Amino acid sequence: MSGTPAQPPGFNELIHAPTRLSLMSLLSASNWMEFGLLRDTMELTDSALSKQLGTLEDAGLVQLQRDGVGRGKRVRVRLTPQGRQAFDVHVGALRAIVERSATNVWDRAHQDETA
């Protein structure tokens, strides 16, 4: 797996979209989350949340569990093992970007002082 300074190894474009990154972050902190709690926490409509979860589910990153029928229908969501690993690796890639940027700025600032 290779990367560039802007996108180090493990950077995941699918996860990085702001709404999906927030969803993955919330889901990483729990075993299962109710659809309604995710919707309310993220301040999304049902359709917007469903679309984002569908994208993550198609990629194998989340699992949806549907129980009941009609108004009593309950949907719960969790990260799959693949999703948890992909999220952790993506967070590591984001940290690498931040750390590299901070180091480069520090090094350049001190090179200018000694020149």
Protein described:
With 115 residues, the chain is an alpha+beta fold. Helix content is 61%, strand content 12%. It has one domain (13-114): Winged helix-like DNA-binding domain superfamily/Winged helix DNA-binding domain (Arc Repressor Mutant, subunit A). It has five helices and three strands; from the N terminus they run ααβααββα. Strand 2 (62-67) and strand 3 (74-79) form a beta hairpin. The protein is elongated, with a radius of gyration of 19 Å. It starts with 12 loop residues before the first helix and ends with a helix. The model has no long low-confidence stretch (mean pLDDT 88). Keywords: DNA-binding. Residues 10-100 form the HTH arsR-type domain.
In short:
Helix content is 61%, strand content 12%. The chain has 115 residues and is an alpha+beta fold. Strands 1-3-2 form a 3-stranded antiparallel β-sheet.
Tally of helical segments: 5
What is the level-2 CATH architecture name?
Orthogonal Bundle
Number of strands: 3
Strand content: 5-15%
* Strand order of the biggest β-sheet: 1-3-2
Q: Output the CATH homologous superfamily.
A: Winged helix-like DNA-binding domain superfamily/Winged helix DNA-binding domain
H-E order: HHEHHEEH
Helix content: 55-70%
User: Please, what is the oligomeric state?
Assistant: single chain
The CATH class, by name, is Mainly Alpha
Give Rg in angstroms.
19 Å
Overall form: elongated
Tell me the domain tally. Answer: 1
- End-to-end Cα distance, whole Å, is 38 Å
Q: Describe the main β-sheet briefly.
A: 3 strands, antiparallel
Structural class: alpha+beta
Question: What is the CATH fold-level name?
Answer: Arc Repressor Mutant, subunit A
Domain HTH arsR-type: 10-100
Pfam family, one: HTH_34
GO molecular function: DNA binding; DNA-binding transcription factor activity
InterPro entries: HTH_ArsR_DNA-bd_dom (IPR001845), WH-like_DNA-bd_sf (IPR036388), WH_DNA-bd_dom (IPR027395), WH_DNA-bd_sf (IPR036390)
